[in-house]
Every structure is written in structure tokens, then in C-alpha cells.
Design brief:
With about 300 residues, the protein is mainly α. It contains 8 helices and 2 strands. It has a single domain, classed as Rhodopsin 7-helix transmembrane proteins (Rhopdopsin 7-helix transmembrane proteins, Up-down Bundle), CATH 1.20.1070.
């Protein structure tokens, strides 16, 4: 029974760290706390999705996926898993090698596009613009991942590519989102969400530059910094979006998806058109272009 009540963190005993700069128990404790925040937020969003109307759950679904992935990846991060030991070209008097956790990049591959998708859907911008922004997050993320594994100063070239992608992303989200949000009537809400997202996105180039890039801070400092900005970015956007979205007009934003799903009840019928106030002729069945009717419609009973 003593094992059940033992609250000590033995993750680093089971999965020993490696390298000159490595995750400590204090860092692991914070990462487990961040894991709990992500997973509790995930469960809360799932619960709130049952209260939302059937056509207004798109943001709940996006946040549920991103929070769940964040919880899984941070569990691996806190457990001292998902890393490589990489030789350092910067500040080698301080440490010649350090743990580089690639698992955090897995989280960013979902978290950053999720934030972009939410901002894009809320502002009513085109799908082409949203796809462009999502690919910019991936270029940014992958460039930093590649840079983390380079042991020479050439890592800063990839850092520059990734940071430039971030600047393109931030400017495009701000400008395109501002214009789109005016059309759908949520200018102030979208401006707050954008400012929040861009501010915390700006923390990533700084955090990477002094940790995986510049080798200036230790494993615990890196873990605390990344954990704080990930939690405040994703959980913050989740809370604010779900709070604001209660007042949004989903039909004006073209987000009020059909409540009948994607499967028609019968060939040629459209059940969503049977809503009150919409005239529907039961004897009329739409025919494909160029098709001819081979038999008269069945008599109504």
C-alpha cells in the first residue's frame, strides 16, 4: 500500500538522463504539472462539447485534439523520453552536450496549426490562406528541429529560416485576420486572440535561442520556459475562444455545419432543407445533369 501513496517522482530513476545538460527532477515535476493542466483542459473541453449545439462544436473538436496531443507529448517530456543527446557548438565550456527533446516538436506540429486554424475559421478568411499559414507553422517547426540536431554554427542558418517563417506567419495572421474579422463582426475578439497568440509565439525563438541553440540555460530552465509558453498559448487561446464563441454568429462565419451529418437520408434528398420555413416538394427529386427520368415518381400514400 505504501507504493500507492508514494508521491515522489522517480521518472529520472527509471529513465536516466544523459548528456552534460539534462532534465532534472524539478524540471520533470513542472512538466508533469503541465501534463495535468493539458489533460484536465482536454476533459473540460470534451465536457463542454456536450452542451454546445450540434452545428457549433468545431472549436471544441480542434482544441480537444490539440490538448490531448499536448498532454501525451508532455507526459513523454516529463518522463525523460523522446530526446537525443547532441554535441554543442556554442558555450562548450559550460556544457559540451545536451538533451534535445524532439517530442516537444511533435506537440508544436499540432498545437501551432490548431491555433492558426481557430484564428482563421473565426475570422472567415479563405481556406487557401489558412493552408498557407499552417504550412508556415510546419516550416518554422521543422527548421528549429533540424537546427537542434546540428552540432556546428550552421544551425543558425536553419534558425533564421524558421524565424523568417514565423514572421511571415505572424504578419499574415494579423493582417488577413483583421480584414476578415471585420466582415464577420468579431474585430475586437479576434484582435485579442491574435495579440495573445503572436505574443507567446514570439517567446519560442527566444527560448530556442538560449536553450537548444545557444546552450545558455540548463535542462530545467528550458523545460520551465517551454512549459509556460505552451500552457499559456494553447490553454489561453482555448479558454478565450470558447468564452467568446458563445456570442458569435456561426452562420455569418460560415461555420454552422449541417446538423444531419455528411450522409444523406436517401438519394437526391437534402434533410437540412426540411427545416421550418423552407418549402420542400416531396415529389421533386434532383436528377444529375444530363440524366432522364426512367419511371414516373411513385404515388404518395
Amino acid at each position: 500500500m505504501g507504493v500507492l501513496y508514494d508521491r515522489s517522482n522517480d521518472a529520472l530513476s527509471v529513465n536516466p538522463p544523459d548528456g552534460d545538460v539534462f532534465l532534472t527532477t524539478n524540471g520533470s515535476n513542472w512538466l508533469f504539472a503541465a501534463t495535468a493542466i493539458f489533460l484536465l483542459s482536454f476533459l473540460l473541453v470534451i465536457g463542454l462539447s456536450f452542451r454546445a449545439r450540434s452545428g457549433e462544436k468545431i472549436f471544441h473538436y480542434i482544441f480537444a485534439i490539440s490538448l490531448f496531443v499536448a498532454g501525451i507529448t508532455y507526459f513523454a517530456f516529463a518522463s525523460d523520453l523522446g530526446y537525443s543527446v547532441v554535441a554543442q557548438s556554442q558555450n562548450t565550456d559550460y556544457a559540451a552536450t545536451r538533451q534535445v527533446f524532439w517530442v516537444k516538436h511533435v506537440n508544436w506540429a499540432v498545437e501551432w496549426p490548431a491555433v492558426v486554424l481557430v484564428l482563421g475559421l473565426a475570422s472567415g478568411i479563405s481556406w487557401a490562406t489558412i493552408i498557407y499559414q499552417i504550412f508556415l507553422t510546419w516550416i518554422w517547426n521543422v527548421s528549429y528541429l533540424v537546427a537542434s540536431y546540428i552540432s556546428t554554427n550552421y544551425k543558425w542558418g536553419f534558425y533564421a529560416f524558421g524565424t523568417f517563417a514565423f514572421l511571415l506567419l505572424a504578419s499574415n495572421v494579423a493582417m488577413e485576420g483583421r480584414l476578415g474579422s471585420r466582415r464577420v463582426g468579431i474585430t475586437s475578439h479576434h484582435a485579442l486572440l491574435t495579440a495573445h497568440s503572436v505574443f507567446f509565439w514570439l517567446m519560442y525563438p527566444i527560448a530556442w535561442g538560449v536553450s537548444d541553440g545557444g546552450n545558455k540555460i540548463g535542462g530545467t530552465g528550458s523545460a520551465v520556459w517551454y512549459g509556460i509558453i505552451d500552457v499559456l498559448l494553447l490553454v489561453g487561446v482555448t479558454v478565450v475562444t470558447l468564452f467568446f464563441s458563445r456570442k458569435w454568429d456561426y452562420s455569418r462565419m460560415n461555420l454552422q455545419f449541417t446538423q444531419f451529418g455528411r450522409v444523406p437520408q436517401a438519394a437526391g434528398t437534402h434533410p437540412e432543407k426540411d427545416l421550418p420555413g423552407h418549402h420542400h416538394d416531396p415529389q421533386h427529386v434532383e436528377q444529375p445533369a444530363g440524366a432522364t427520368s426512367a419511371a414516373p415518381a411513385q404515388a404518395m400514400v
